[in-house]
Amino acid sequence: MKEYSARSNFPKKINFKHSKLFLLLVFFSTVQLMAQDKKEFLSAKESEPSNFGWMQGFPPLADKTLHTSDGSFFEFPAIRWSVVHMREMLPTINVSRGLGAPNPLEYNLDKNIDELTFTPWNSDKKMTWEESLWENYTDGMLILHKGKVVYEKYFSELTENDVHGVMSLTKSFNGTLAAILVAEGKIDENKLVPTYVPELKNSAYGDATVREVMDMTNALAYSEDYADPNADIWDFSAAGSPLPKPKDYEGPEGYYEYLETVKKEGKHGEAFGYKTVNADALGWIISKATGKSVNELLSERIWSKLGMEQDAYYQVDGKGIAFTGGGFNAGMRDLGRFGELLRNHGNLNGEQLFPAQAVKDIEKGGSKQAFEKSNHPGLKGWSYRNMWWITENKDGAYAARGVHGQTIYIDPAAEMVIVRFASHPIAANSANDATSLPAYQAVADYLMSKK
Asked: How many domains does the chain have?
């Protein structure tokens, strides 16, 4: 049985500035880790945090202590512990649920779901729904059908009392807020970015429209190739890290300062390019347009309106600015409530919390031609709109996605919302899509057959 370290995927020739900070980068959604054979990893059951005894005692034993500074808290299998303990390891800012009582969810649990079968991509062997959960290192799974919980399970370190890091699923909250503001006329999607953020006039964003940022079709000279020690992602991480900077550090301080340095490469509007910096740029636009931080606005417009069970939180940079590209943490049932709100086009029990047009704009999808030019060969025919992934399938399903297996998957035709938390040893979702996306469709088809 081989214990796998996530750091083994990364190049050895990284200078001090990078090596001290690089494990924070796993929060970004375009991680491209090298493919690893399954035998390289401990299984989901073997990698359960309870098998290792991390962070137990006051203080924990030295060999059971996970550290932020050396990155050990986010190595596999330690990631399976840390995804539900981010606030203990990194500085954060709150997203308040307000003071009201939680809005209870209705339950109609369906014992048949575990036995549903589907055929994974590139395979001729059937797999059950339950087997797929273990295959994909699932930490939590929630399914709602017509607003009722039909499936809910917790694994690994996660309990119903915990919140979990959602990684790049975070971006879809920015996209949703921006879509709401566009629908309300508070942001003009056709205006250039400096209309709202003058600080970006000399950057690649200077001649990009807000819509191009929302759909990530702007042209940036920016690489998130994690296998390249000279990729721009390292500098973005160094700027945004809340850890102390090395004495010789002379780069930007904070995510926003870094955005001012991004250069243009190519022509805006032609191709989809999934880049985390766009989510933080959109967060800045949202804040400038409303005069409120993203965490305040999310609380005001959504989190305090839905009867959430728990406060959520964002990780922050050294200046206390929320990392809206990948730093959100929330409870599983609360993400289910959010998914239901979108499935119902912003309507909660007869009250319209925001214009239905905001969700309809997500559902209509983006340019398939622009998406086809991106490096997502496993997602043929998909598009991207308002920082949501649009499957363009027969059900009109769309998803928020984050590395290591996080998702909110909304299937309007099946009246279904799926929330999954996971801690897969491979960051890129291409490692689990083959056994996740067909599984979601199998559940959708089953639920529709019950009508």
From this structure: 1
